[in-house]
Write a structure and sequence with these properties.
Rossmann fold, single chain, two-stranded parallel ribbon, globular, 214 residues, 40% helix, two-stranded parallel sheet, mainly alpha
């Protein structure tokens, strides 16, 4: 959902956009790839690229990539959840910067959220400021590449409202950590998404497991 709205912002603010998707062995990779393809058909980016990062799955250590680790239901804990994928966003950014250097993309948008999220350390503003310094010192830099995190300080309900204003196709987004076809409604990510739509006074267009109270 956060990435979808970020994509809508990028489309609004730029003449040309390119979309990047990563398969990294996540449980919901099939549904996420389906959503990516639907978004490409909707927004018609100049270029699109799907890359595989199997090492994140091979390394494991996350309930998203290791089938032996259970995805727990939302319990309100303030601890970093088991769904944290070790240093995932750094890997994503590195790939995006490599592609940006080749296609001369001046901005890299990523839908990280710090203010109202599950508490992942690689979703904090300070992390992206540090990554910007890494790009500034480690890339070829015959042109400037800037990281853009337009929703990082928004509440989830604000992200929903902004997406609605931008006519973002929420039906092509997926937040569930457990399932590929019907969202579970009880994992951390589903909880935050449902809460956001409820507080925004909007209806979530995706399908949830029967019996889930929305």
């Amino acid at each position: 959902m956060d990435s979808l709205v970020t994509a809508a912002i990028a489309v609004r603010d730029n003449d040309k956009v390119c979309f990047l998707h990563v398969n990294y062995g996540q449980r919901t990779k099939d549904k996420e790839l389906e959503c990516f393809n639907n978004l490409c058909a909707h927004y018609h980016p100049e270029k699109s690229l799907v890359i595989d990062m199997p090492w994140l799955g091979n390394i494991g250590g996350s309930a998203l990539t290791d089938q032996t680790i259970e995805v727990k239901d939302h319990n309100g804990s303030l601890q970093i959840p088991q769904t944290y994928v070790p240093f995932r966003n750094a890997n994503f950014i590195a790939a995006a910067v490599s592609w940006a250097e080749v296609i001369r993309a001046y901005r890299i948008y990523i839908g990280a959220v710090e203010e109202d999220s599950s508490g992942y350390p690689d979703c904090r503003d300070i992390f992206y400021m540090s990554m910007q310094k890494t790009i500034d010192t480690g890339a070829k830099n015959d042109f400037n590449i800037k990281l853009v995190t337009p929703v990082i300080h928004l509440k989830k309900k604000e992200i929903v409202k902004l997406g609605l204003e931008l006519n973002a196709p929420f039906e092509y987004s997926w937040s569930c950590y457990k399932n590929n076809y019907q969202a579970c409604g009880v994992c951390d990510s589903c909880h935050l998404r449902l809460k956001a739509f409820r507080e925004a006074g909007a209806t979530d267009p995706i399908s949830y497991v029967e019996g889930i109270i929305l």
